[in-house]
Amino acid sequence: MIPYIRGLHSITCIHFLPNMKILIPLLFPLFLTVNGCLHISGPSNKNCTPTDPSVFLFAYSNDLDRSDLIMYYQLTGPIYNTHRSHGLKFNVAATVRFDTKIREDIVFHEVANEDDKLFHSQNAAGTRVEQQNVDPSQRFDSSETGSDVLDMLERFIGTNYKDLCGSSALIVMSRSPNEVEISKLVTKIREYHITLNIVVRVPFSGGHRPETIYDLAAKTNGQCAFTNVVRDQAYHWMPNILNAFTYYSLNLKVSGTGTMVLPPLTLQKNATLDLGVGAQSSATAESFQNLTLSWRNSQTGTTGSFSRTREQMNQKSLNFFSKEKFLEAEAATYELTLDYNYSLEDTVLIRMNSLQPIDDWLPYQNSSIETQ
Ligand SMILES: *[C@@H]1O[C@H](CO)[C@@H](O)[C@H](O)[C@H]1NC(C)=O
Ligand SMILES: *[C@@H]1O[C@H](CO)[C@@H](O)[C@H](O)[C@H]1NC(C)=O
Ligand SMILES: *[C@@H]1O[C@H](CO)[C@@H](O)[C@H](O)[C@H]1NC(C)=O
Ligand SMILES: *[C@@H]1O[C@H](CO)[C@@H](O)[C@H](O)[C@H]1NC(C)=O
């Protein structure tokens, strides 16, 4: 007997008992078409909403310097405070160090305190990062060795932790992966709606395929910023780290100069949106010249815009721009236009995030929209 409830997949999930696992591989393909909500193994659920309790993962490469880890406190303090004061989303902190000779476990900092769980979890996570720090003796011996960041993400998902769905990961790294093929990982990250905020310290400490990281962020509605100075108030230039709810996400392939009308943004409720723009796919690209992103409220005709030039790139951000309160907007439909100026082809990532909860996940994009 296969139990199923038609049409209730967003509300009701069918929980399989562990001893039914053997049956699942056979039933799953058939079953998914009738009921999108299945717990195949373990208690983790793929059908969460953006506001369901989830995990905040801090993952850092052992290639970083001790002093880079101050970023942890600069970033996670505001993140947790914001989420605590708004009663939002994250309810457990997780940490892991990667790029080590001996692989290390992902630790979920579960605490007994019921009153302020996130606060105590964050404290435990902070203590762990402080004690673990970085260990130069555990670094890979060769700069040819690629980062194991993709393996780390596979393992994070593989934990099947109960609140895995809808998690956010802040990943700080300096070594590129050597892999190019990421489609399996992309599928998993999408299934669990995991948001990636990746900060890459350059120059790279090793590895050969930096473009894989940008590609991973692009395909999962995440962000990827290259920087020379990890330790400098990164949340000022990566706003999505603070604002967990994604309202707009678009990847565009651009080259030359032109104007492109983008898909409009419809706000059901008043919202304040921060903007993040990945202007080029690497720290060293020379393609980006300047761009302007403009909005127009189609009901009232109010307009606004954001412009940046190549000269405005600085050490803090070698490919990424952000603008707090890009749109402080009332419920309406907003027309969006991008004016771009690139000397070579590149991929632009446009993201708008808010602290105001949103009901649904945005769709994912496999290939960047091409400009004419
Ligand atoms: C989109 O990408 C995912 C992951 O790479 C892949 O599994 C899926 O088949 C792709 N879909 C299309 C329509 O190309
Ligand atoms: C494009 O960038 C170049 C170099 O910065 C500049 O000279 C030119 O005026 C720009 N053109 C447009 C249309 O933005
Ligand atoms: C680039 O900058 C130039 C000079 O300020 C300006 O005229 C042009 O409109 C800008 N182009 C874009 C695409 O923002
Ligand atoms: C939304 O914003 C408009 C304009 O600022 C304001 O008049 C309205 O009261 C706001 N609505 C809500 C529900 O806050």
Automatic annotation (TrEMBL):
<dbReference type="Pfam" id="PF23673">
    <property type="entry name" value="DUF7154"/>
</dbReference>
<protein>
    <recommendedName>
        <fullName>DUF7154 domain-containing protein</fullName>
    </recommendedName>
</protein>
<dbReference type="GO" id="GO:0045087">
    <property type="term" value="P:innate immune response"/>
</dbReference>
<dbReference type="InterPro" id="IPR055578">
    <property type="entry name" value="DUF7154"/>
</dbReference>
<feature type="domain" description="DUF7154">
    <location>
        <begin position="251"/>
        <end position="354"/>
    </location>
</feature>
